[in-house]
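Example 4.3 (complexes with small molecules)
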Amino acid sequence: MTGLPWDASYRDGPAPWDIGRPQPAIVRLASEGGFVGAVLDAGCGPGENALHVASLGFSVLGVDVAETALAIAREKANERGIEVEFATADAFQLECLGRKFETVLDCGLFHTFDADERPRYVASLASVTEHGGTVYVLSFSDDGPDTGPHPISQEELRAAFNSSNGWNVAILERERIQTRYHDNGAPGWLATMKRI
Ligand SMILES: C[S@@+](CC[C@H](N)C(=O)[O-])C[C@H]1O[C@@H](n2cnc3c(N)ncnc32)[C@H](O)[C@@H]1O
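Answer. The structure with S-adenosylmethionine bound is encoded below.
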């Protein structure tokens, strides 16, 4: 578990990615009916995306290794009166949850993993995603200018999720990712993966 270094980024005020509201790309996705069934938010951080989806009436579990982020997320859920679950879990061992989800969201987690870590993470996602279910990955893209940290190429996304490991990349579209230090967001990919 890489929890401790990650936790530190939440202790002294908002982390660079904590914009205090859901990512516009996720709001749009939700408004277009992109979320169905039980939803998992992997690496939920301070929970804005999970809270938004839960506020629409979905059953949502947000998991993270950073306890401070989870505490912030739970406090917001209480304040806003939103029913949602936040739990400590390692994204590399999601099978330990003992649950399956029809929709899984990864907002800013995939791009933090090195290439050699991705197969393990993608296998972990496969273990909790229903067949026919959907995984959304919103990541920084290398298609600049003004890229965010750890930008990835669409080839890297396609290499990580492929038919030989149980995935079909259904849609790969350009998106903007809002941060606290990009005026108009950073270039990103919104990838829609279907579990075969
Ligand atoms: C860039 S932040 C994005 C947070 C959130 N999704 C958002 O959009 O605000 C990445 C998050 O992934 C979490 N994380 C990193 N490695 C993890 C792991 N192995 N398992 C679960 N969460 C992890 C970090 O603690 C952090 O909260």
